[in-house]
Amino acid sequence: MIRGLPVVALSIGALLLAVGLAMQALTPAEHARWVARLGFDLDALYRFRLWTMPFATVVQSDPGLGLDFWALLCSCVAAVALVERSAGWKLALAAFFMTDWLASFLRLAALATLAGLGSSDARRFLDVADTGSSAALAGVLTVAALLHHGRTRALLLALLALWLGYGVSRFRLDIGIVHAAGALAGVLLTLLWRRATDSSASASTAV
C-alpha cells in the first residue's frame, strides 16, 4: 500500500473498468468471439494456450456495463482491498489472479469427471470458453475470510458457502463449478501463504 491506499485493489478495479469500457463498443457477436478466443476450455488446454489466462480473468463473459458488471467490479475491489490491508499486496495480487487460473483447471477437471459419469451438460460445457472475474472474486473472498480467526472466520465462511450454494441453484452447471473451484483455490493459496510465512519466520528466528 501507499499511504494507506490499497494500490493493488484500485489497480485491479481500474483494469476491469478499462477492459469493460474497451469492449463496450463491441456488438454482442463480436464480444462472444473475443470470449471464445481468450477463454479457457478443453481445446485451450490441449493446445496449451495458457497465455490467454490473464486476459480471460479480466474479460467478462457478458457484454456491456450493466448492473452485474458494476456489482462485480465493486465486490472485487473491496475483497482485494481487505486482503491487501490484512496481508499485503503480494497475497492480494496472487489471490485475484492465481485463484482464477487454478479455478479454470479445476473447472475442466470437474466437468471431465462429470462427463465421464454420463453428464451430457458437463460434456458440452467442456467446450465452452470460460472468462470473467467471478471465480477470482470467490477466491479472494475465501482468502479474506481465512485471514480472520474464530467466530468471525466461521461466519464469513458460512456466508460464502451460502453465496456459492445460491450460485449453484441460479447459474448453469459450469459457472457454479468454477465459483466453487475459485473458493477451493483460495483455500489452497492461503495454506501455501501461511506455510511460506511460517517458514520465513522460522528462518528469521534461527538467524
Give the topology string: H per helix, E per strand.
HHHHHHHHHH
Helix-and-strand structural type:
mainly alpha
Unreliable residue runs: none
Number of helices, where a helix is a run of at least 4 consecutive DSSP H or I residues: 10
The coarse overall form would be: globular
Report on this model:
- The protein has ten helices and no strands.
- α5 packs across α6, α8 runs antiparallel to α9 and α8 packs across α10.
- With 207 residues, it is mostly helical.
Secondary structure: elements and pairs:
Layout: H1 7-24, H2 28-38, H3 42-46, H4 53-58, H5 67-87, H6 89-116, H7 120-125, H8 134-146, H9 150-170, H10 173-206
Note the main attributes of this structure.
0% strand, 10 helices, 79% helix, 207 residues, mainly alpha
Would you kindly provide a brief summary of this structure?
Helix content is 79%, strand content 0%. The chain has 207 residues and is mainly α. Helix 5 packs across helix 6 (89-116), helix 8 (134-146) packs antiparallel against helix 9 (150-170) and helix 9 (150-170) runs antiparallel to helix 10.
